[in-house]
Amino acid sequence: NPIKCECSIHWITSIDRSRWRGPWYTGECKSPQELEGKELKDLNNSYFQHCRE
Q1: What is the radius of gyration, based on Cα positions, of the chain?
Q2: DSSP letters along the chain, please?
Q3: Residues ≥6 apart with Cβ < 8 Å to 18
Q4: Of 20, 2, 27, 14, whose CA–CA distance to 53 is shortest?
């Protein structure tokens, strides 16, 4: 399934990456265009600086 990597998933950057196990933590962004193809595991806070807390 395509994943919209927008502000609503900003929380994913706060997960302890050492605990990421299994296929449910894999996936890649489909949008926005600047993040298309980026894997979820590679996202960090810098991609969401424009988001309001």
Answers
A1: 11
A2: --EE-SGGGGGGGGS-GGG--SGGG--BEEESGGGTT-BGGG--GGGGTTS--
A3: none
A4: 14
* Of the candidate ranges 9-13, 17-21, 33-37, the one whose mean pLDDT is the lowest: 17-21
Residue type, 29: C
Rounded to whole angstroms, the Cα distance separating 18 from 51 reads 25
- pTM to 2 decimals? 0.71
Token pair belonging to 25: 């933590």
